[in-house]
Amino acid sequence: MDVLTARTDTGDPAYLAFAFIRIKGSPDVHTLGLTFGDRVAVATQSFAAGPGTVLTLHQIKLLDGTLQDSLPSIDLDSYFHAPELDTLYVENVNRWVRRSVPGTNQELCSVVPSQFRHHNMDRLPLRFSPREKIKSAQKARTLLPTRIAKDSVRLGSHTVSYTVDASRDLNGVGLVYFASYFSFADTALLAYWEKLSRPLESFLARRVIDNRMCYFSNADPGTVLSISVTGYRYPASMPDDGELIDIRITDRHTGELLALNSQHVFAR
Amino acid sequence: MDVLTARTDTGDPAYLAFAFIRIKGSPDVHTLGLTFGDRVAVATQSFAAGPGTVLTLHQIKLLDGTLQDSLPSIDLDSYFHAPELDTLYVENVNRWVRRSVPGTNQELCSVVPSQFRHHNMDRLPLRFSPREKIKSAQKARTLLPTRIAKDSVRLGSHTVSYTVDASRDLNGVGLVYFASYFSFADTALLAYWEKLSRPLESFLARRVIDNRMCYFSNADPGTVLSISVTGYRYPASMPDDGELIDIRITDRHTGELLALNSQHVFAR
Where is the LnmK N-terminal domain (chains A, B) (predicted)? Predict the structure, then answer.
């Protein structure tokens, strides 16, 4: 089947939508550190993580001339439990969805196109299933450990409103584009930065070594979002471990949770 | 040479920046009509258009099963003077630039990296040179014919302010991304649409059959832009030929012209 033109059994378009994304690097290798002309090697593997859910893992290394162009295939235990400092780890969870009512992006529902076959994909051992972490984040309304407020120093918080822009936030099928959620979060992060009187230069030079986004709902263009940002730092008694950012994107009118984002940021 | 990591003779980064983009289609084939899963065939050719200027032409056709995957090479006369209705024509003009002062995006200046060789590129016959049209647009401060105000009906105009966003408008080297200029223009176009009390659905369903952007200056993040939109329609005595949109992007503080955009739009 062609995943980009998939249809439900009743002939409606079906989309393999993002449910979760994590981009994990290190102070040495992080997304904002990449630039034009960098050469990278990528290893990618997809796994069936339930009947209508696909987990895709990428490992990305900067090529420095000594490294071979191809990487060994992904080992799940090292991927999740023994990450290396010179590697960027990108984890995507995608689920099949369809519109519940034509013409609106609200209340997308799960569907598995009957042509979709996951039997020839590698099966994901249950201990690596993303399901539990998504469920518990939704329940706790944060991707950070729930003890964070007790264990750390609260640096500040800030909430902005943002209207979903029909001219730049939608993808080719009229849904809010998955990458736009990162723009929403980063726009609010910039406002938080300015509220704490930090210079723009330090925002541009920040290193985001871990960035997670959990998607719960899409939205129609024109929807007013409320995006709240809270920053935490571990107590001064501990070695500098950067700043943890907790971002919550909700529909300002209904209060519905659209997405959660957490970022581990080193500011310069 | 690697165009993405080019340096000037003094070792500073050099960028092959966009100076002009035109995307020309028809009511049948236009960018907003493309979606996930569409298969296209592309023919591309680059030409030397002066010592530090490159013109790149693309012809794009939707594959419908009967069409071969490859297109014949580009013929300049047909490209510019006999376009076909089933083809999308994308024209890029790029010029080598460098920062005049490190740390700012203002006043980029021309530079040709000495490693850059254009002798093995096809030379562009002078009659197709983009130079004159860029110069006359800059002088007239519009990409539309200067008689447009006389020959047509003015539908309305609207000006918005927009602050260049450090979190979403920059590219990997800290310059305002060329595609962000289209977002700036379209954000203002949406505001114009709303001012004329047109429904959001008609904005989303619009067909942009010609879209030109002429770049004159970059900008630092935090710069406040003034984006003005004026719409024209030919007199009712003529057959419906859509709407011509004239967009001007300036620095609100200094008045400097950053870019001109024109769009030929059919609203539904």
Answer: 2-144
